[in-house]
């Protein structure tokens, strides 16, 4: 009789022990998910946007993307299918529009764009109107740009292709480094020069 009772008690204890352990495993698994692993982002978000201002409070750039990942340790932010606006430092107006498949901004404010990169001027009178390439680096502090990839650049009265590029968006200049081929539209350049002379004359009269 005592043997049967002890057996029953042991059986009940084993069942309760198994139930207790099974309850602890999900809790431990949930706790493990809360602990950040090396190399994983500190936070992620979908359809998010961010605006960054300089120390004078003027807008420096605006970015939005389908997905954003931020890493606190490296102060690095990733953007998937990004759209970026760059602002003029003096007027605080939108000056350039950039898009790509993927982008990354480092803590030094270096913007690296990869895949179907397009840079477009929002000012129709800008000498440099569009750049298309596969990779592009933009220094958000100075607006210097560079790439080693094949580039197609379009401006007022010209279209140029080549490999490698260096330039500056504030100065509206971009120089292709090698294998350069250019197509010039003299009519457009003539009309632009005449318009600039007219604008200059108007200012002098005023």
From TrEMBL:
Family: Belongs to the LptC family.
Subunit structure: Component of the lipopolysaccharide transport and assembly complex. Interacts with LptA and the LptBFG transporter complex.
PANTHER family named among the record's database cross-references: LIPOPOLYSACCHARIDE EXPORT SYSTEM PROTEIN LPTC
Gene3D superfamilies in alphabetical order: Lipopolysaccharide (LPS) transport protein A like domain
GO CC entries: outer membrane-bounded periplasmic space; plasma membrane
HAMAP family assigned: LPS_assembly_LptC
Protein name (database record): Lipopolysaccharide export system protein LptC
Pfam name, any one: LptC
């Amino acid at each position: 009789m005592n043997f049967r009772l002890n057996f029953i008690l042991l059986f009940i204890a084993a069942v309760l022990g198994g139930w207790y352990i099974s309850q602890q495993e999900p809790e431990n698994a949930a706790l493990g998910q809360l602990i950040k692993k090396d190399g994983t982002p500190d936070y992620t978000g979908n359809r998010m946007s961010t605006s960054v201002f300089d120390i004078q409070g003027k807008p420096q750039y605006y970015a939005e993307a389908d997905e954003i990942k931020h890493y606190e340790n490296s102060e690095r932010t990733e953007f998937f299918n990004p759209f970026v606006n760059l602002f003029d430092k003096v007027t605080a107006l939108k000056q350039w529009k950039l898009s790509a498949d993927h982008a990354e901004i480092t803590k030094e404010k270096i913007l690296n764009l990869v895949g179907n990169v397009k840079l477009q001027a929002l000012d129709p009178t800008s000498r440099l109107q569009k750049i298309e390439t596969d990779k592009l680096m933009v220094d958000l502090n100075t607006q210097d740009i560079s790439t080693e990839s094949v580039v197609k650049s379009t401006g007022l009265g010209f279209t140029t292709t080549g490999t490698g590029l260096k330039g500056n968006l504030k100065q509206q200049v971009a120089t292709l480094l090698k294998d350069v081929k250019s197509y010039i539209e003299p009519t457009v350049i003539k009309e632009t020069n005449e318009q600039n002379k007219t604008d200059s004359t108007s200012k002098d009269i005023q």
